[in-house]
Design a protein that fits this description.
alpha+beta; 3-stranded antiparallel beta sheet; 3 helices
Length: 85
């Protein structure tokens, strides 16, 4: 499976211990997304379209109503790089 550069960036952040926080409206639809790195920094590289693509491919998932994290399949798909860029 081929993964775009934007997907690679997001998966690298998640593989290093980050997570995706999701805000939903009253109907349960995703309203706002934020990637939080393991150091607590917020990243703006995740769009709603990219989030849905990663979720549909099962590269990220949420467990027990928690934040979205990378799955084992996501870890296998992400290409490791020396400097993660």
């Amino acid at each position: 499976m081929d993964i775009s550069k934007a997907e690679q960036r997001v998966l690298h952040l998640l593989a290093q211990g980050g997570h995706v926080l999701v805000e939903k409206d009253e109907r349960g639809r995703v309203e706002d997304l934020a990637i939080v790195t393991r150091d607590g920094w917020h990243n703006t590289g995740l769009t709603l379209e990219l989030f849905r693509k990663l979720k549909r491919r099962r590269l990220i998932a949420s467990a027990d109503s928690g934040p979205y994290r990378i799955t084992r399949l996501g870890l296998l798909r992400v290409r490791s790089q020396l400097d993660n860029r």
